[in-house]
């Protein structure tokens, strides 16, 4: 009887990124980060400032399915609130 080694591969990870625009209020971006990404008020504020000053900011790193769901949630919420906020995912 031979023993077999089973190799496990970790899933690819994806960054969820918010993009800056000139119309979405900063308070809305902070709310999105707290609501959908479980960020503390201080962390949400820091990420929002990064989005504002650098043009984009990473909200979190997730598996593809979770990242895709988060992007959809943010985009739907922004659209329902009539804000042009954009959210994308990119391979980490």
TrEMBL record:
Q: What does this protein do?
A: Involved in the modulation of the specificity of the ClpAP-mediated ATP-dependent protein degradation.
From the broadest rank down, the organism's phylogenetic lineage runs: Bacteria, Pseudomonadati, Pseudomonadota, Alphaproteobacteria, Acetobacterales
InterPro entries according to UniProt? ClpS (IPR022935), ClpS_core (IPR003769), Ribosomal_bL12_C/ClpS-like (IPR014719)
- According to UniProt, the name of this protein is ATP-dependent Clp protease adapter protein ClpS
Q: Where is the Adaptor protein ClpS core domain?
A: 11-88
Alphabetized UniProt keyword annotations: Hydrolase, Protease
Q: Which organism is it from?
A: Bombella intestini
Entry keyword annotation includes Nucleus: no
PANTHER family found in the cross-reference section: ATP-DEPENDENT CLP PROTEASE ADAPTER PROTEIN CLPS, ATP-DEPENDENT CLP PROTEASE ADAPTER PROTEIN CLPS1, CHLOROPLASTIC
Q: Name one GO molecular function term.
A: peptidase activity
């Amino acid at each position: 009887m031979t023993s077999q080694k089973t190799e496990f591969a970790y899933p690819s990870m994806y960054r969820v990124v918010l993009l800056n625009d000139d119309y979405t209020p900063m308070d809305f971006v902070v709310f999105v980060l707290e609501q959908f990404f479980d960020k503390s008020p201080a962390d949400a504020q820091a990420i929002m400032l990064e989005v504002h000053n650098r043009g984009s900011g990473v909200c979190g790193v997730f598996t593809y399915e979770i990242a895709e769901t988060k992007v959809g949630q943010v985009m739907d919420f922004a659209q329902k609130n009539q804000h042009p906020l954009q959210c994308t995912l990119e391979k980490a």
